[in-house]
Amino acid sequence: MTRILLSGCCGKMGRNVISIVNERKDCEIVAGIDIVDDSSIGFPIFQSYDEVEIKADVIIDFSNPSLLPDMLSFAEKNNTAVVLATTGLNEEQIKSVENVSEKVPVFFSYNMSIGVSLLCEISKTVAKVLGNGFDVEIIEAHHNKKIDAPSGTAIMLGNAVKEELPDHYFEYDRFSKRQKREANEIGIHSIRGGTIVGEHQVVFAGNDEILTLSHSARSRAIFATGAVNAAVFIAEKENGMFNMSDLING
User: Between β-strands 209-217 and 198-206, what pairing exists: parallel, antiparallel or unpaired?
Assistant: First the structure.
């Protein structure tokens, strides 16, 4: 039985994780971290990692990047695995995650959906086959409450393409330019509106033909399911960085 410490347990994603775990028999949530105290949630809630006295095998983090240092410190001190599902991390924060992964197992992905992970692999294959003969554009859409743009998933898709086209670079803003598109650009475009859960398209545009790969998230449950699967997967691993490709490939 995998014992989970859920950070951000009273938020929308946290409650989705709770719902998923309640339907499984291979894991349980033993405690949560949140500034909100909901006595009906079914397990102890602590406002900070300093207060936690309950042993857990893995942390699932759906909170805020500002809590990252405390979470990583707790994980290292207590030898607790980490599933990092918080978005909007900067390069310095990602580096701190990599440093801690030398001592405890860390599962880090910009998107916890298995479908998105497969989309990355397919995009990489298409980029390899089409080479430099097609222009690449990435379009992402999310709800109007999302803070970061572009989405981490858009960056993940772009990085997948760049593995096969290493001379390409990201272009985020063409509005300030008056010039034609460069052949080695990967355009990234963000849409924010309504309650869109998550839409991603990778467009390969060539001479007289267009190939579009897409993924549509219809609910947050898919991300919660991926995070719980990752928690069970990583709980028994040694130190190191893991991602959705590791989970898919066993």
Answer: antiparallel
Of the candidates 143, 166, 161, 140, which has an alpha carbon nearest to the alpha carbon of residue 152?
Answer: 140
25 is catalytic: no
pLDDT in tens, the chain (250 residues): 999 999 999 998 999 999 999 999 999 999 999 998 888 898 999 999 999 999 999 999 988 888 899 999 999 999 999 999 877 788 899 999 999 999 999 999 888 888 998 999 999 999 999 989 999 999 999 999 998 899 989 999 999 999 999 999 999 988 888 889 999 999 999 999 999 999 999 999 999 999 999 999 998 899 999 999 999 999 989 899 998 888 877 6
Catalytic residue among 124, 143, 146, 177: 146
CA end-to-end distance (rounded Å), the chain: 19
Joined tokens for residue 209: 């033909």
CB 135 within 8 A of CB 165: no
Catalytic residue among 12, 55, 128, 142: 142
Residue 41 DSSP SS3: coil
Active-site annotation holds for 146: yes
